[in-house]
Structure formats: structure tokens, C-alpha cells
Specification:
Helix content: 40-55%
Number of strands: 7
Distance between the termini: 15 Å
Order of helices and strands: HEEHHEEHEEE
Strand content: 5-15%
Strand order of the largest sheet: 5-6-7
Largest sheet: 3 strands, antiparallel
């Protein structure tokens, strides 16, 4: 059965909605700040972007938003790839969140952050990991046995259950 005929999983919805939003925000962020400043060679706390709504952005931050959004949109089509994308996105944003919380000014000297960015990164991390973890549809695939009977595999701990047609 085609993935599109079974409805979208939580991971697919996450990838579609957050992906599209990140691309849009990344592109609009260039209106607020298009410079690609870094804190290399100077005071690490000197990296400042411009505010876009509540969030501090610069060219690098905008590129990260666009790239993250395109990554999520590219993998949103199938349940399995959307789940992988959501989990990978959540793991990467967890690292970004920790760095942003520890440093408080920027991430890796490229991406300016402020408290609003940190809160958003925490929320995105939690939402991505939750969407990925609840989207276990790829583990419940239905297959036919040699005798034509259908089996549905549940969780890894359970044995296949017979389904009558």
C-alpha cells in the first residue's frame, strides 16, 4: 500500500509544517539581516545579528533555517524518511540548543542567539523528537505470508499477529 493512501504520520506533518515555516522564515530573515558576520578573530560575544520579530538573525542563521527547512521538506514524502528526518533534526537542534544555552551569545561563532532563540530551539527539539518517536508506522508494515494470509508486525517485542481478510 502506498504511504499516501494511509494518511500522514506525525513525523510527516512535522516535516511539512516546520520545513515550510523554516524556509519562509529563513528567506524573510534576509530582509532583516543579510550580512555573514562571524565572531572569528574578535570578541566572541561581539557577534550581533538584527532582530527578526523576537529572534536574532544574520546571513548564516538564515541559511541554516533555509537548509533545515529544505531537509525536512525533502524527506517528508514517506513515513520512514520523515521519521528519520524528524529524529535527526531533533538531535542536531538539541546540540544547537545546548551550545546556545551554554554560550548565550552565538553558536560556533556564526549564528547569533538570544533567549527567544534558545526557547524556540528547545521547543523545536522536543517537537521533532516527539514526532519522530510517535511515528512508528514503518514498524507496523503489513505483509502476506506464503499461504496468502496477511500478518501485521507490531512492536519489536511482539510476535506477528494474524489478520483475516
Amino acid at each position: 500500500m502506498d504511504d499516501r493512501n494511509r494518511g500522514r504520520s506525525a513525523a510527516q506533518w512535522f516535516c511539512l509544517i516546520v520545513g515550510a515555516t523554516l524556509v519562509l522564515v529563513g528567506l524573510l530573515g534576509f530582509l532583516a539581516e543579510a550580512k555573514f558576520d562571524t565572531s572569528a578573530g574578535g570578541d566572541p560575544g561581539a557577534l550581533d545579528g538584527e532582530n527578526f520579530i523576537l529572534f536574532e538573525v544574520n546571513g548564516w542563521h538564515n541559511i541554516v533555517h533555509v537548509a533545515s527547512g529544505l531537509f525536512l521538506l525533502a524527506l517528508a514524502g514517506k513515513h520512514r524518511t520523515a521519521r528519520t528526518a524528524a529524529l535527526a533534526f531533533g538531535a542536531i537542534y538539541a546540540v544547537v540548543t545546548v551550545i546556545g544555552l551554554i554560550d548565550g551569545h552565538d553558536v560556533l561563532g556564526l549564528i547569533p542567539v538570544n533567549p527567544a532563540d534558545n526557547v524556540l530551539h528547545i521547543l523545536l527539539t522536543v517537537a521533532a523528537l516527539a514526532a519522530g518517536l510517535v511515528s512508528d508506522r514503518d514498524r507496523r508494515e503489513v505483509r502476506s505470508g506464503a499461504d496468502g494470509r496477511r500478518f501485521e508486525r507490531g512492536s519489536r517485542a511482539e510476535s506477528p499477529t494474524l489478520q483475516r481478510r
